[in-house]
User: Fold TldD/PmbA family protein from Bradyrhizobium symbiodeficiens.
Amino acid sequence: MNSSPSASSTLSSKDSSKGSKASRDLFDQSALSDLAQRLVEAAKRAGADAADAVAVRGVSQGVEVRDGRVEESERSEGDDVGLRVLVGQRQAVVSTNDVSGDAVTKLAERAVAMARVAPDDKYVGLADPSLLARDFPDLDLLDPDVPATSELERRALEAEAAALAVKGVTKSGGASASAGMGGMVLVTSTGFHGSYLRSSQGISATAISGEGTGMERDYDFTSAPHGADLLSPDIVGRSAGERTVARSNPRKVETCKVPVVFDPRVAGSLVGHVVGAINGASIARKTSFLKDKLGQQLFAKNIRIIDDPLRKRGLRSQTFDAEGVAVKKIALIDEGVLTTWLLDCATARELGLTTTGHAHRGVSSSPSPGPYNLHLEPGTPTPAELIADIKQGFYVTDLIGSGVNGVTGDYSRGASGFWIENGEITYPVSEVTIAGHLFEIFKSMQPANNLEFRYGINAPTVRIEGLTLGGR
Assistant:
């Protein structure tokens, strides 16, 4: 049996004195682990050839403020379980949040009955035991200091006050602070037993400038598993206000073809398009424009895109995937070359490959591939050097809509930002579209040196050549 350390033991080692009994109970997943084990055993008794059970815990609290007053304060808490059973090459998934009485036995019997009438699928099945995780490094994902509601109120009010203090901000768009915890227990009939918990905390603020039809709005936020890693409320609020004021009195521009520079806040979307196109499910369905590009040079040789599930305190870190498979840091793009697809066990079997440990899953769904902590490695030029030779161009700070076709690679999105003239960022621009093709975008991508790890997908400032800017 492969077993990960329990979250409760992690908590007690870090916080034996400060954690209240209520907090320790919240972090203790032993009851969930026992429940998942009983579900798997019940499924086997009911006639399943194989089974796995997922138990998911979610706890969250949040406060929203506006104009110096609390508008909303809420807390939610719940545990859900899901059971996947296999009878031959047939599969069924059921879920519930009610496991009182003989509910475990009934749930297992219902799942097996559903599987027996399901269509055959030659690709379903549990992970090969040789691929299961055996090492569970401590990724420091759980903050034992759970902020009280009064602390969340303080953070939100401070962020809003900082935004309103920026000259040119006319009103608040609201501010919020949140804290939560989520985790999973996975038990399989092949003997795997793993669990993890991660905490999350966040602060956000929105500011408004101008009046009537001339109003502009922008925001900023910070999020991290540990409260100590958050930006201060003052920094978040001030940034939201400064971003908003900078957008005041935007101009229109003529349609043209120019270099486009993506601010780090939106540059990660380009990485997201790469990863969406190499998802094994899309490759198996042949619905990706990259379906024939494995092993080919798509970017310049200095481009590397990394997926790192083992990053300490990462927003999406974990030590095993939703099928119990060991995860590892991997370069999806290495020296500009596409090295792999993102695969779970089923898509890997369909493609004649081995899973890459990228299975994700909810309690009511079967596993499907997805990424962890993604980032585009930085280049050498500073952001200023990246735009220094641009006579006319566009600096994007916000993207609107989802006009990206993953089948063809066509790219078209609404955008706002700033005009670049003679190597300098000048006046704000709004109501434009940027369009091109992802192949050309990938080929011309130039990253700056200012990578920071703030989001689930991180990228430095990025320059793309020759996109069409649709204006007047």
Remarks:
- Residues 224 and 372 are 15 Å apart (CA to CA).
- The chain has a mean pLDDT of 92.
- The first helix runs from residue 7 to 14.
- The chain has eleven helices and 20 strands.
